[in-house]
Design brief:
Layout lengths: L1 E5 L6 H12 L11 H8 L5 E8 L2 E10 L4 E3 L12 E2 L7 H7 L4 E8 L9 E11 L4 H11 L1 H18 L2 E4 L5 H17 L9 H11 L7 E9 L2 E10 L3 E9 L8 H15 L4 E3 L6 H6 L2 E11 L3 H21 L2 H19 L1
Helix pairs in contact: 4-5
Length: about 350
């Protein structure tokens, strides 16, 4: 076995095709975050992005994308915005996590959305989280019927609000794959306002994230394409979502709406329209992403699971990493696991958001 480290842009066409083939044989859902195009896009805005190419007898047997920081501290590619992380390996490949980290000159590798079934790093998971999904593999009509049976009031109310939106605001129109850059800018403005309103850090205030999203909006590849979906009322955007799709999975990423239309629940209407359009495109699953939310509970048909934690190699640098990250992670975990404390934390964030807006 040979492991060599390269910049993502140094992979040749044969290697990227081998990456795609190995991923297709993994048996896991076809997340666009695990495709080479996502790593290449991140490399354009994160200069520390690297790929470990694992070869056996001169043939690619695996690819491990990561970002390398100071002191050999590594992190998943796009950590903080990537919803599916891990290595792409040939089934049955004999490789240890420490062996891989050593080859990459990493003392630690941090992940927050490690894909379920990543045996190489499974023992290093500190927490597991549900990632709700919508299954439309049997068609939208089947999903809608199940939704009517499971949550009849929710479905009736949402449909009634869509009709009310059309009556009071103008004809409702939906575009599954909107290419207008101005619509993307509108979504990013809404999302930034939402982050500030809820007391959270504005992701789009970070240049690398906003640039990454704009570049992915222009990306067109079978395994990873940017998709901007927009709900219009009288040709005015009222809700939008930007995500990534493969042939069979739509990874839901950045949803937002115009708060002036909040009473019509345009975000819920948008997600139902997205599910319908995705099914028509041959997409079988919408991954709503890690994190609890009422709308996810209402829409989901099942769950995937992702993991948070870090793999380390014994040594002083790994100890420094642990001291710098683990106490904060454990504090967050403690709060999340206690609903009352989590409620207080949310109220505090909302208060901070209001102060920011004043």
């Amino acid at each position: 076995m040979r492991i060599r480290v390269v910049k993502p842009g140094e992979l040749d066409e044969g290697e990227t095709e081998s990456w795609r083939e190995l991923r297709a044989k993994s048996g896991s859902p076809a997340s666009p975050f695990m495709e080479p195009e996502f790593t290449l896009a991140v490399a354009g805005v994160r200069p520390g992005a690297r790929v470990a190419v694992i070869e056996e007898d001169g043939v690619p047997a695996g690819f491990f994308p990561y970002e390398k920081g100071p002191f050999g501290h590594g992190r998943a590619v796009g950590l903080g915005v990537s919803d599916c992380q891990g290595a792409v390996l040939r089934p049955g490949l004999r490789l240890g996590a420490r062996e891989l980290l050593r080859a990459c000159s990493l003392s630690a590798w941090e992940f927050d959305n490690l894909e379920d079934g990543q045996g190489l790093f499974a023992q290093d998971s500190a927490e597991e989280f549900a990632s709700p999904v919508i299954d439309v593999g049997e068609g939208y009509a089947v999903y809608e019927e199940r939704l009517r049976e499971r949550s009849p009031k929710f479905f009736r109310t949402t449909m009634a609000k869509e009709r009310k939106l059309a009556r009071q605001a103008g004809e409702v129109r939906f575009v599954f794959d909107e290419r207008d850059p101005e619509a993307l800018r509108t979504l990013m403005d809404w999302k930034s306002a939402q982050y500030r309103r809820t007391g959270r850090r504005d992701r789009f205030a970070q240049d690398w994230i906003s640039t990454l999203v704009r570049r992915l909006h222009e990306t067109r590849a079978p395994g990873c394409s940017g998709v901007l979906s927009v709900l219009y009322a009288a040709d005015r955007p009222v809700a939008a979502h930007f995500g990534l799709r493969s042939r069979t999975v739509l990874s839901c990423w950045f949803p937002a709406y115009d708060t002036a239309y909040a009473k019509y629940s345009p975000g819920l209407v948008l997600h139902l329209r997205m599910a319908e359009a995705a099914a028509a495109e041959g997409i079988g699953m919408l991954d709503l992403g890690r994190g609890a939310a009422e709308y996810k509970d209402a829409l989901k048909t099942g769950e995937l699971h992702v993991h948070e934690g870090s793999s380390t190699r014994p040594g002083a640098r790994a100890a420094l990493y642990w001291l710098g990250r683990e106490p904060a992670r454990r504090a967050h975990s403690y709060v999340r696991s206690r609903p009352r404390l989590a409620g207080y934390a949310q109220k505090t964030l909302n208060r901070i958001g209001r102060l920011r807006g004043e």
